[in-house]
Amino acid sequence: MSAGIAEFLAYWQEEGERYARHGDYAWMASLVPGRRVLEIGCGPGFSTQALAAGGLAVLALDALPECLAATEARIAGADVRLLAADLAALSDEQRDQIAAFAPDAVVCWLMGAPADITGAQAADSGRAVIAYREKMHRLVAELAASLPTARALHLVDRTVIAWQAKDIGRDTLVGYHLGKTLRDLPFTATRQNALYRKLEDVAATRPTPTHPALKGAVPTLASLLAERKN
Questions:
Q1: Cα–Cα distance between 126 and 194 in angstroms, integer?
Q2: What are residue 103's phi and psi, to 5 degrees?
Q3: CB-CB neighbours of 11 under 10 Å
Q4: What pLDDT sits at residue 121?
Q5: If you compute the radius of gyration of the chain from its CA atoms, what whole number of angstroms results?
Q6: Confidence tier at 4 by pLDDT (50, 70, 90)
Q7: How many CA atoms lie within 13 A of 178 on its CB side?
Q8: What percent of the chain lies above the pLDDT cut of 70?
Q9: In angstroms, what CA-CA distances link 103 with 62, 94, 114, 166, 224?
Q10: Which of 34, 66, 82, 179 is the most exposed place for a label (fewest CB within 10 A)?
Q11: Which pLDDT score is estimated for 207?
Q12: Contact (Cβ atoms closer than 8 angstroms) between residue 227 and residue 151
């Protein structure tokens, strides 16, 4: 295991435990419609575990064997199948396996990858991670669009918003995904399916923002459920 992957897994092990304790994964799973879900990027398995605990049959895809191994250990006995695959380079056989699973929904939560995959550098102000996230979200949406059984696409990521302006943020979240992630695809989204949830104990671990535009801003989970057009 490379140092970058080891660091990535250690970070998400700690974050995942915190989110699980706070009920964040259970909250995300409660928003997923249907009974069969394709999960893109299982990480160390906390999200997969929450989906299975919610009574869903899961096909979890990840490009990192270390993530698949951690997930397998965490979900022993659950109705979960694992698939080693790179979303950006799916083979015809892998696409056939995904189609045969016939998911009702596709989910992609808390998009992330080691720096040697995203190209992130300390001096790039997060631009590489943003570009990676946009690219992968689009690939997730295109895959969902290609699956006739998939009626919903659920995306969750972390962001920072002024909590008192979260209603405006809901419109911004919908507009962003309609203009980029879902552009020209058979999915739509409305503000009633754009939700925010405060993350736990963030004030104690992060410095207080000093820029006026960030006054009152809090780290949150941003959730958008897109639905296939009739």
A1: 24
A2: -70, 145
A3: 13
A4: 75
A5: 17
A6: confident
A7: 14
A8: 92
A9: 16, 14, 28, 31, 18
A10: 179
A11: 47
A12: yes
Which whole number is the average pLDDT over 151-175? Answer: 95
User: DSSP letters of 83-129?
Assistant: EE--GGG--HHHHHHHHHH--SEEEEES----HHHH---GGGTTHHH
In whole numbers, what is the pLDDT of the chain averaged over residues?
90
Segment 100-154, tens digit of pLDDT? 999 999 999 998 777 777 776 777 767 888 888 999 999 999 999 999 999 999 9
CA gap 224, 111 in Å, rounded: 14
- Higher-confidence residue of 8 and 137: namely 137
Residue 161, classed as helix, strand or coil, is strand
What is the pLDDT at residue 214?
Answer: 54
CA 175 – CA 15 distance, rounded (Å): 28
| Structure token pair of residue 181 | 């992630």
Give the C-alpha separation, 48 to 17, whole Å: 13
For 183, phi and psi rounded to 5 degrees? -55, 125
pTM tops 0.85: yes
Alpha helices for the chain (secondary structure H): 3-22, 24-30, 46-53, 65-74, 92-101, 115-118, 127-146, 166-179
Distances (CA, A) of 147 to 74, 78, 88, 89, 202: 28, 24, 16, 17, 38
Please choose, from the candidates 209, 194, 214, the residue with its C-alpha nearest in 3D space to the C-alpha of residue 31: 194
Other CB atoms within 10 Å distance of the CB of residue 13: 15
| Ramachandran area for residue 125 (φ above 0: left; ψ -120 to 50: alpha; else beta) | left
